[in-house]
Each structure stands twice: as C-alpha cells, then as structure tokens.
Amino acid sequence: MPRPIEALIHQPALAHNIRRARACAPDAQVFAIVKANAYGHGIENSFEALRSADGFALLDLDEAQRLRNLGWRGPILLLEGCFETRDLELCSRLKLWHAVHHEQQIDWLAMHKTHEPHRVFLKLNSGMNRLGFTPSAFRAAWTRLNALPQVDEISLMTHFSDADGPRGIARQLAVFQEATADLPGERSLSNSAAVLRHAADASVRADWVRAGIMSYGGAPDYPEHDIAHWDLKPTMTLRSKVLAVQHLHAGDSVGYGSTFIADRDMRIGTVACGYADGYPRHAGHGTPALVGGQRTTTVGRVSMDMLAVDLTGLPQEGVGSEVTLWGQGPHGGVLPIDEVARAAGTIGYELMCAVTRRVPVHVETLG
Ligand SMILES: *Cc1c(COP(=O)(O)O)cnc(C)c1O
C-alpha cells in the first residue's frame, strides 16, 4: 500500500471559482491563469473545469503546448512574452498571444517571418517595477509595434502591486489611464485581488480580467478576508492519515529539537505528511489541521515525512483517522490553505505550488 498521503484536485470547486470571477466582472472576458502548472494543480487536472474561461494565461511555452494538446483552440496569452527570438515561431505555430514588455521583444518581432500576424499585449510598468515599458516609453513602443506587419492587434496591459492591500490601485490606475488615453485596443489590468476588491469600477474590469489565486480557492487579501467572505471554494486538498498514536505526560517532548514540551497529559497522532511532501517546515506548533473533519493543531516541528497533531480533545480519533492538512475535509469541513500558509509565514500561492512529486494526485471530476 502506498503512503496514505494524497492531493485531491476538486474540479467542481475550480468551476465554481471561475463563475465567481465572471460574476465579479460580468462584462469582461476572463483569463484563467494556469502558470506554474495551474498553481500546482496540474494543467491537465484542471482543464475541464477551467475551460469555461475565455482564455488561458501562463508563462511557459511548454505549458501552452500542453493546453493545445488538450484541444484548447481559444486564446492563450504568454504573460512574460517571448524569452528569445525562436519562441516567436512557436507563437505563430500555436497561435499564442504574447506580452511585449521590453524593446528587444519588438526587435525580435520585426525580424520574425510569419504568415499570420500576431496579437500582442503591450505591457505598461505603472509602478510595480517588474515588467513593462515606463509611461514615457509606452507610446513609442506602441507606435513601433503598430508599424510592424507581424502585428495585427495590440492590447494594453498592466499589473497592480497592491490590489490586495491598503495602498490600493488608484495611483497605478491613473498612470495606466494617462499612458493609454487615446490608444485603441483591449485592456487588461486586474488580478484576483483587483477583481474581488476593485471591480465595481468598469475601468478596472476593462476587457479582460486575469483570475489566478481566486480560481484556486485562495483569498488574495487573507487575513483581511477569507475565502468564505469571497464565496470561493478550496480546489486542492492535501490529506493523509494518522500512522501512530503517542501518549505524553507533562514534560514529554515531541519531534526534532524537542521544541514542544507537554504541560499536561496529551494524546498525539503522528501523520504521514512532511516537508518532503510540500508541507511547510516553517509551519510552527499550533498550525491548524482537521482530523476526522474536526479542528485541531500540529504539535512540534514538521519533519521530512511526518508531523504530529494533537488528538487530546479527539478521543475517538486514532490510527487510520483521516487528516486534512488543507482544503476540503470530511463532513463538509473546510481548512483554507490561507490559514496554514499564514502559520508558516507565507501565502497560499506558495503552498499549492510546492506539493512535491511523491504525492499522488487524484481528481474529483465535474459531476
Ligand atoms: C500571476 C499573474 C496574475 C494572477 O495573479 P493572482 O493574484 O493569482 O490572481 C495576473 N497577472 C499577471 C501578469 C500575473 O503574472
């Protein structure tokens, strides 16, 4: 028998979350962001549930190829565009839309031989200072692209650095609007946080929204809001089982480094899940978990293959009990990945991308 750990991908929840993106931006088209192998869910595992989106956006050309192999003929946008001149051949062959965020990408296009001109998304650096043309260089880049026979449609894109927080988007939105004021073309500005928090403004929804983390049941602004607040459902469950039970007395310790010392009698369950499965070692004592669908917490340090949970208040649970590390538990219980991430000093995005290859993945398909 394999180790009892597994990851479940919930297609009904993915489909629900995409509907939520649509409901927040009903007049916009929705890109489902599937970079990083669909945020660790697997493009192939997620595709049927996400194909109700209007397009997919990602970074890796091989992931674009995989989407075409699945039969997707609709839009695919490369969010970082091409990395070298050769990539344009694949863009032509697979009919990929691609971001243009620096001058060299325009040089490559100008030399590219193609029968069918490309659609590009010209990226403005409106303040994030990661990718994109500065406001002062933007118009010249647009003019250059517009003169190329290799390009037939130029869309306009930017990315918000603070859509999830108190700084908000007003400043970057104003920069975008000024830089693009009289330029034609479709526009795309919003990630999940902007879709959830700022999309009452039609200029924020614009023509295309880019739904990443919300599609995967993460709240971009946790802990200010959780997924229940945003009506999102967990799309990935990491679950395992209790392998062993230990009875502790006051003064006994648990795990490497004896970082946890019991101050009373306790019952501890040893769970087949560790950092080699992608569970964060930084998740300290007290990180939430579900056992048999009931809430408890981890105890002591996470080791490579195991961690411990407190069963003291759960006398009916023991060897073989189901442990939900995050996601959907039995009896309708939910443990949002954001809660576990926070206990580990990170964000849900990182945990869902980090489940390792040794964890078998199963898919709950659309009903
Ligand atoms: C990853 C990414 C997104 C999606 O962000 P979420 O916060 O996951 O919604 C949108 N746009 C760009 C350019 C991205 O790189």
UniProtKB/TrEMBL annotation:
Keywords for the protein's UniProt record, in alphabetical order: Isomerase, Pyridoxal phosphate
Binding site for substrate: R130, M304
Highest taxon above the source species: Bacteria
Metabolic or biological pathway: Amino-acid biosynthesis; D-alanine biosynthesis; D-alanine from L-alanine: step 1/1
Catalytic activity, reaction form: L-alanine = D-alanine
GO molecular function: alanine racemase activity
Domain Alanine racemase C-terminal residue range list: 235-364
Cofactor(s) listed: pyridoxal 5'-phosphate
Residues annotated as the enzyme's active site: K35, Y256
Enzyme Commission number(s) from the entry: 5.1.1.1
N6-(pyridoxal phosphate)lysine sites (modified residues): K35
SUPFAM superfamilies for the chain: Alanine racemase C-terminal domain-like, PLP-binding barrel
PANTHER family listed in its UniProt record: ALANINE RACEMASE, ALANINE RACEMASE, CATABOLIC-RELATED
Function: Catalyzes the interconversion of L-alanine and D-alanine. May also act on other amino acids.
Family note: Belongs to the alanine racemase family.
UniProt protein name: Alanine racemase
Gene: alr
